[in-house]
Amino acid sequence: MAATASHLAIGTPQSRGYFINSGFQLENGNTSLRLTSNSFRVNMGIFRIGSYCSRGRRCIVAQASNDTTIDSSNKPKETALILIRHGESLWNEKNLFTGCVDVPLTNKGVEEAIEAGKRISNIPIDVIHTSALIRAQMTAMLAMTQHRRKKVPIIMHNESEQAKSWSQIFSEETIKQCIPVVTAWQLNERMYGELQGLNKQETADRYGKEQVHEWRRSYDIPPPNGESLEMCAQRAVAYFKEHIEPQLVSGKNVMIAAHGNSLRSIIMYLDKLTSQEVISLELSTGIPMLYISKDGKFIRRGSPAGPTEAGVYAYTKRLAKYRQKLDDMSYI
Amino acid sequence: MAAIAFHQAIGTRYSYGCFHQEQGTASPRLVSYGFRVDNRLLRSENYRSSKRKLFFSHASTTQTPVFDPVSSPSKNATAESRKKSNEAALILIRHGESLWNEKNLFTGCVDVPLTQKGVEEAIEAGKRISNIPVDMIYTSALIRAQMTAMLAMTQHRRKKVPIVMHDESEQAKSWSRIHSEETKKQCIPVVTAWQLNERMYGELQGLNKQETADRYGKEKVHEWRRSYDIPPPNGESLEMCAERAVAYFKERIEPQFVAGNNVMIAAHGNSLRSIIMYLDKLTSQEVISLELSTGIPMLYIFKEGKFVRRGSPAGPSEAGVYAYTKTLALYRQKLDEKEMFH
After folding, report:
1. Superfamily of domain A78-327
2. Which residues of B are less than 8 Å from A110 in CB distance?
3. B182 is an active site residue
4. Are B77 and B255 spatial neighbours (Cβ–Cβ below 8 Å)?
């Protein structure tokens, strides 16, 4: 049936484990849009509306519509995926193992985020996923202050019933202008166990340089009570496949703001790297990586040029047209 | 009594106009560190004297308590390694412009981030408080307040590191654990609390202010926005907001001062007004007309169980000589001294 709804979904996929289970069920990857009855119950894959429409109120829930309407005949053939690794944090500066300790950005990290934002200001974004850590969330929000489209990122809250109901939006018009931001512990940095908070030099002194090097750079050897890269990859890629990939397939452009190891894990999946290859993969901080999702495949498109760079970088025809539209709009 | 300390005078007071200043006495009695100093020797020396003859015999002892972010703060009240100051600072910062402020939409508890301007306001606020010790930070559950706190702290001189606390689940707690005592001592715990959220605006959230006026009528909307106890449909009144904000303040934040910890709260217009209502013992009539500037920090001193309003710390570019209290001025001097030798 033709999809004619163009609402924005506010329901969020549930992240188990880290946040309080709010009973918000997750659909399994089915992304077909079906309009049932005239009460606007929209089943659109990973966004389940049921519990959100409490008290029989006419809830304004639907899915993100960008310039391309969500109609199976009209589904965009390709969507953009942006990966941004956060910049310098206060413990990077002090050379301490950070892992999942929630350390914020330094001034430099703030600037890196804004710079990254300038580089992606012309790429459409419909959904944002970040980790549960403030340095990634801030990176995403700072980057979006530079975005040209003018849709507003809104962080989703479903850690409790009250959090959900208190953050509801009651204007359809406004909802259309929202970019949902989903926070997920599964995108967190690799958990470094008993090394968290330790000085890198001290740790080398205490455990020996080789042992530390092994923990940091092997694929499957975790530090004491910590995660190996393999373990990190397992939960990060599982989250990507379950929550993010369906969105890309359904026509949404996605930005992920996360950490060195969680992003390497995802890139390992996107580029089908071996464990040997991923170990030597280094992702620059603050430099966004662009992938195009097309026909179920991921094509790496490198890093969008900064605004001061004189390159003529058109990622795809579609993105180039999108940029042109933005340019046209700013003349109005 | 003979003056045996060689401290420079710090005690010039500077009045800020926006709020009433307490008419405190201007007697800088140095009672800490075992020195009793005759204040006649200390008065009226310029705080910003370029001759930095600082003879802090006890300057090496930290002015602020050593804090273990893992255990509950009040348990550390008796740590003998810590010199308990007899006063503690409370900084209130209201976040700056958010993306919906810009669009003139009712925000409430919708989690909307800052605009670029809001980011700059936060950094500016941080410069103003860069010399005031901070041991604990409390923010709301909303990103615009959290970002304001973290951006402000990028400007802080002390170099302790704010760390956001996570206890939403067992895994969150264990995954965020720090395993170095040394590092923990350099941490400023950041506690996020929904009780410090903006007033929840119910069915007005997301609505355009003009549209809402058209739909409900100007007076009705004005009533919801400006009355004390009339909530918008399915929303909170200011009274309801105050109830949960002040309860949180009394239960979780106030004990921090008693334990000697300096606190910063980064939150929202209504939750901060509620707290100020409590601190200054305002009536509901008075609180309604209270406006708190965005991005301009408000300073209170907690002393002997009371909160003394000290106005707003001067920005770094302002030529004022603003010494909040002797303790804070000494603290600032210590920071300056440290920087000289590094």
Report:
1. Phosphoglycerate mutase-like (3.40.50.1240)
2. 119, 151, 154
3. no
4. no
- Per DSSP, chain B holds a count of helices (H) and strands (E) of 12, 7
Q: Do A152 and B112 touch (CB under 8 A)?
A: yes
pTM summary value: 0.76
> Hey, what amino acid is at A124?
P
Residue spans per domain, chain A: 4-74, 78-327
Q: Which of A78, A189, A227, A245 is catalytic?
A: A189
ipTM > 0.85 for the complex? no
Pick from A141, A165, A181, A203 the residue to mutate for testing the B interface (most B CBs within 10 Å).
Answer: A141
Residue indicated by tokens 């709010």: A22
Do A180 and A152 contact (CB within 8 A), yes or no? no
A163 touches chain B (CB under 8 A): yes
B179 is catalytic: no
Q: Are B21 and B15 in contact (CB under 8 A)?
A: yes
Please list the pLDDT of chain A residue by residue as tens digits (332 residues). 433 333 333 333 333 333 323 333 333 333 333 333 333 333 333 333 333 334 444 433 333 344 444 444 556 679 999 999 999 999 998 999 999 999 999 999 999 999 999 999 999 999 999 999 999 999 999 999 999 878 999 999 999 999 999 999 999 999 999 999 999 999 999 999 999 999 988 899 889 999 998 998 899 999 999 999 999 999 999 999 999 999 999 999 999 999 999 999 999 999 999 999 998 888 888 899 999 999 989 999 887 765 544 334 455 777 777 777 777 776 55
- Count of CB contacts below 8 A, A vs B? 143
**Spatial contact of A59 and A52, defined as CB atoms under 8 Å apart:** yes
- Which helix (H) or strand (E) covers residue B114, if one does? none
Give the containing element (helix H, strand E) for B272. helix B269-279
- Is the Cβ of A273 closer than 8 Å to some Cβ of chain B? no
Interface touch B153/A104, C-beta < 8 Å? yes
Contact B171 A185 (CB under 8 A): yes
